[in-house]
Write a structure and sequence with these properties.
This protein has 15 helices and 22 strands. The chain is an alpha/beta fold and about 475 residues long. Helix 1 packs across helix 7 and helix 2 packs antiparallel against helix 5. The protein is globular. It binds NADP nicotinamide-adenine-dinucleotide phosphate. NADP nicotinamide-adenine-dinucleotide phosphate binds next to helix 7 and helix 8.
Amino acid sequence: MLYINGEWRQANSGQTLDVLNPATGEIINTVASGGKEETKEAIQAAKKAFKSWKKATGEERGKYLAKAAELMKEKKGEIARTITMEMGKPLPHAEREVAGAINYVVWYAEEAKRVYGETIPASHPDKHLMLLRQPVGVAAAITPWNFPASMITRKIAPAIAAGCTVVLKPAPSTPLSAIKVFECFHEAGFPEGVANLIIGPADEIGKELTKSPDVRKLTFTGSTPVGKMLLKESADTVKKISMELGGHAPFIVFEDADMGAAIKGVLGTKFVNSGQTCISTNRIYVAESIAEEFGQRLAEQAAKLKVGNGLEDGVDVGPLINEQALEKVENHVADAVQQNGKVLCGGNRYGNGKGSFYEPTVINFAQESMKITTEETFGPVAPIYTFKDEEEVIERANHESYGLAAYCFTKDLGRGYRMMSELEYGIVGINDPAPIVAQAPFGGFKESGMGKEGGRSGILEYLEEKFVSVGIGN
Ligand code: NAP
């Protein structure tokens, strides 16, 4: 179903699209598929709603969000099951995602009350200078399938808290999670037109959103090539833009690191979501003196991970999103092997051919010339590189084009601080493989994105700064 101006409805054309379970290949549901016309309607509904929504107090807007968060908590199990069925991640991981998605709504329900302005000292006694922060207007949000609930609330909660109205286009492979989140918005009583949902063909909906002068903000999470294209498309209407794009995270393990903790960190950042995470570890740099032991221990642990349908108990690694994703992983592994990479575990498709599963894979002797180094693999493949010293590893870890997340394990405090400052990444975890929280900014450097989501920075992305100078003389 589409959700426009507070109503659930079919597409004008009656068109639908099927939603598949990547663990079984079966159709699990069919939803309405709208296009240009419905997008126009949604933009107009959001534009109309903006007139009154921007005037609501932050406290009032926060109450709607708090109610939506309560409803999401009540439906946590249902939303998580939907995520698992349409994109494959194991149920406990889907539950964790929903908890994270709720955290954003709760955080911004509070933050809605704290959109402060500033006073600026004047250069003349007869002037009073102020900076006001006002909502930018209608915001278009485009989200990917890999976190089909939390990527939505990370955008919509701050937008709504700021006083913007929203048109969301989720990934068509995961529309059911989006519908579940919107059901909570609907039940929470969001006024008509404040949040709108359009499911359908990316190109058609995307063009309408980017070309419309009524859309004043575009927030996108997805791949770097699509992000670049949307930036170009939005140029004619000079929108406020934020982009959360692809990543290629280095995971650096120094010789003094707690090896057990580092291995646990790699398992968590590499194989969770089957490696389909923008902050997934993509390159593991291990100090030469400990590399052999590290590789062996990591491969032993990776080989023990249970692959399967995410609804089954004890599954650690679910399927990849589709056959195309599986082929890309196969291609990257074949390329690594051809360039003398050594497969320590995995390296094959998994299962009876029904779902798109790939074995957790560890590759030793990775090289800079391999595709796994230069492209985002987006699969459960862990390549190990070795390094001699700190200077060398900093140079190699800083990617030419990506700069989203980086991890570093060391017990040397000074080195930890040096790494923190030298790594050219928007997010750095020092002895911490999970540096993501609702109250902190999330976003990349270089071609990994622009702007931030989460924390105080996240709401500023939906606010315009207005300078006002008031003459107070007679
Ligand atoms: P994608 O292909 O770029 O798609 C993301 C979204 O953009 C989907 O809704 C997609 O719809 C839509 N889209 C594609 N072409 C479009 C167009 N011409 N106009 C408008 N919308 C368009 O990325 P993905 O494969 O879904 O997601 C994986 C990527 O997202 C990875 O690169 C990952 O690193 C990145 N990601 C980044 C973050 C972050 O916070 N930095 C978080 C999660 C994921 P269709 O599916 O219909 O094409």
